Automatic annotation (TrEMBL):
This is Peptidase A1 domain-containing protein. Pfam families: Asp. Keywords: Signal. One of its GO terms (cellular component) is lysosome. It comes from the Eukaryota. GO terms for molecular function: aspartic-type endopeptidase activity. SUPFAM superfamilies: Acid proteases. Residues 67-416 form the Peptidase A1 domain. GO terms for biological process: proteolysis. InterPro entries: Aspartic_peptidase_A1 (IPR001461), Pepsin-like_dom (IPR034164), PEPTIDASE_A1 (IPR033121), Peptidase_aspartic_dom_sf (IPR021109). The active site is at D85, D308.
Amino acid sequence: MKLLILFIVFRFAAALVYQQSLIRVESRKMKMMKAGTWDAYHKEKQTLQQSFDDKYQNMNDFDDVEYIANLYIGTPPQAFKFYYDVNSQDFWVTDKSCEKFDSDIPHCPSICYKPGGAVFCNPKCRQNIAKTESDERICIQKAKYDSTKSSTFYHPNEPRENNRDYEFGYIVASFIGEDKIMLEAEAPKFGYLTVRLASFLQAKELSPTFADTPFDGMLGFGPSSFFLSNVNNKLDKPMYTIYINDIDDYNVTGGLITFGDIDKEHCSSEIEYQSTLSQYTFMIYNISFDTSPTEKQAMQIPSEVTVDIARSSIMGPPEIIKSLKEAANANEDGKIDCDAEIKDLSIQVRNENGFKILTIPGKHLKIQNPDGSCNIAFESMPPNSAFLNKWIFGVPWLKSYCNIFSFENEQKIGFSKIIV
Ligand SMILES: *[C@@H]1O[C@H](CO)[C@@H](O)[C@H](O)[C@H]1NC(C)=O
Ligand SMILES: *[C@@H]1O[C@H](CO)[C@@H](O)[C@H](O)[C@H]1NC(C)=O
């Protein structure tokens, strides 16, 4: 009898961990590089960045997104490709009402009128620039949510406009829908992590920056995430883990997101939680290719880091990035010799037990471009931004350590060794 009870408890406990594949897909940036449209667009983007001020607060940039997951909304379930954002709590999906830029009163956020900003906006907001082919493609490319086909759809309120402005684009939603959502989990056994009534924006307009992005919607797991607070009591532990593997192919499993525990198969159980200033950030004290850093590369003051799965690089203060590029023999644009061996990057952090050096293996810092050239995965923070002295660690970092996001009392981030 005792054994039977134990067995049942064990089975029950095991079901409270859900693991989902993150599929690696071609980013919008890579597609644009192939099409030869990236350089001109990137120039506009840099021009726009010049006009950012310290109000530049959200860091969403969708050009680099290359990990997506399957998410289902409604009954019967409608399937979508989703980008999971570790920094926001946004939740929106492209709606059936998404067609063309046909609104009489277009939503034109202030970026539309800044130098370089027009390409990010509805053709009706940008004088002198005609509609382009990509404007036509956006809605056609996306899977669209149809609330009339869902028996669990619920929206108690009158339709109301709800927009979400990002640094490089925006969405316009006419409804806030509520419906059942399901994340498809493969392990420890096949199942769904379900929220019975989640509320999300139904986007009827996506800015041109969403053309060719590989997702239909976005779900945020950042601080105060609605989704996480709703699944919290269904999980073994209030945490999720991101593990990104070393495979650089497209349309294959590029990593796993594990809700409710660490990923025991790929991550060491020794989690080192970091000292932090704000939710899900951590502090670094110096960063260098050298174990005895030159003064230039070492930091005068500790800096705050945010992890972002939507970035293909390590972003930091322009001065330090410049010296890191030089140390890696990259030119100003970050171009490197594809055969060059890149040294491991040492980063000093501080966890609960004191200072420690963590390492990004050099191989994770090399980006292969579609034209056969290579780049070092370093980028400067935009000038004038509130982020000027901060860092964003993207995919090279996520390939180096398992990243554990705990949301019990405080929202802290921890790292553990990848053990495969
Ligand atoms: C990946 O899948 C997309 C969509 O199905 C397809 O267009 C693309 O060609 C595929 N890429 C590769 C490298 O197989
Ligand atoms: C970082 O700086 C500390 C002291 O400022 C030094 O002890 C340590 O070796 C440095 N680490 C790296 C990786 O440069």
